[in-house]
Amino acid sequence: MSCQTGLVLALLWLMLLYLAPAKGESEIPPRAFLLLHPSWSTTFQGESVKLTCMAVPSSEKGPITWCHNNNVWKTTSEEIQIEDSGYYQCKTQRSHFSEPVHVEFSSDEVILQVSPHPIFEGDDVFLKCQRKNGQLNKATYYKDGEILPSSYSDTIKLLSVSRDSSKYSCTAFWKAVFNIPWSKASKPLKLQVQELFLPPVLKLSPRQPNEGDPVTLTCETRLPPQKSHVQLRFCFFKDGQRLESGCNSSQEIQIPTMRLEDSGSYWCQAEAVAYKIIKNSSRLKIDVLRIPVSDVNLETRPPGGQLIEGENLILICSVAKGTGTITFSWHKDGTRVSKKTQQSLLAELLIPTVKMQDAGRYYCVADNGGPILSNRKEVTVRGLVSRPVLILRTPRHQAVVGDVVQLHCEASKGSPPIWYQFYHEDVTLGNSSAPNGGGASFNFSLTEEGSGNYSCDANNGLGPQSSDRVSLKVIGLSAPGASSPSDWQEPSFSRLSSTPPQEHLHDGHPAFIELQPIYNNVNPEGLNMVYSQIQSSQPRNGNSANSPRMCQKDKEPVVIYSELRIACCDDSSQQVSNHQEGDTEDYENVPRESAALDH
Questions:
Q1: Which domains does the chain have, with CATH numbers?
Q2: Were both Cys, which of 112, 266, 422, 449 would link to 429 (CB 3.0–4.6 Å)?
């Protein structure tokens, strides 16, 4: 441990005393102290002084740490002889460093000595004017330049000294050779007066009293070991009035039951009656609280905190104990949501029609003088899936048998994960999932038996939602009136529309995608053109105004064809080629026999 100056150590002692633990806890170690022999703090050069390190208990054994100015050393001896000026300190294994003692070895002819040492405020001390190697006839003593009353002897007594900045000196008178009168003054000297006891510290136990609690007030200070015999008297005050317990030698008083009106400013006083030394503690403001809240608990309704979007959430904050007005507050992810103040042990917060953003980690705080936090509850909000939309996708504008068709089902809303189920005529085709939300797809190869209604379901565990049905229709596998298979080519299919015109919706039937066969033999001009029947309707009785246009001659159904592509007759591998966008023309059919006669 490094050696400290006297001022720093004095402040350290004061701090340690103020931070001393409350009654019942382990106490801080006492300070060691130094004894001088002879007990004068100033002596002449060439002489020596014995220093003795004392500690409480005095029976303690072990190494002694000594400090001279900033030099530290250890020895097993509790006594040392010194001949050098400076500040000296010591400590034992179970004590703090002693107060610094300044010992002066002077080369002056006349010095002023003070005894005993150490000096405490209120002590009586002796001043002695000394001449080196000679006797004095008389001496005059001064305090701050003013002559002190004395008998003009070599020693005077000062009664009940105090800690101040006064400086003392003396003038020695003697007869020199041939009886010539001679005098010489000493250097001024400031007394090293230590505090008899530190200003007391008022301590409260418990530190924060509640209404109805018993309280102990302690006026804590400490006497040095050399002055342990001094009797102290203690008094306690509140708001300028002395408490009814009066003043006595006890450092403690008990207040059996604290009330709210007992709040106020308290302090204590310690007095050394024999020394007429009185010291007051600092003020301590005591606020008596009502019974504090405890066991704060947060509950949710529904229990478990799992909700579906649109439901109501109730957060219940309760305390097991607490009196007076209690302030309840609810917090989500560290942000306060709401606050209520009421005289009740329970409060509720309603969050109506929860949304996805209401999910989070909730807790509540109850406060009637000190905030207490509750447990935390995780609230989850899951959103129902919206009605999904089914979309059919083909790899090209005109798909052929064997092409892969994709069914894509997507719900725009809903908490993930979302499971999708795909159906053809209410028979499950397959399923797929979207772990992070969004849509999912299912692929299948197009066959001649693929006609029918397609749909999908979306479900995230909160109930399925079904899409609208989408119809896929394959009409005919051979050309009407063809004489032999060589007269027509293998039909291919074209996706026409997922949203047919209004006139295609008959009798409330679901919308459908119509895939129609394409025939090479429908070629009125004899060109290598391919046409596709894109509309064919039978007339309806009683609704001729809304019926498709019919041939007036034979009243056969009107069939509308569209030019789709160029057919290369000589190269079956390139029989079908896509027509450019915008090159499609619509044609009205005539009966096959008539068409054949025309060509």
A1: 6-194 (2.60.40.10), 201-286 (2.60.40.10), 297-381 (2.60.40.10), 389-474 (2.60.40.10), 485-598 (no CATH)
A2: 422
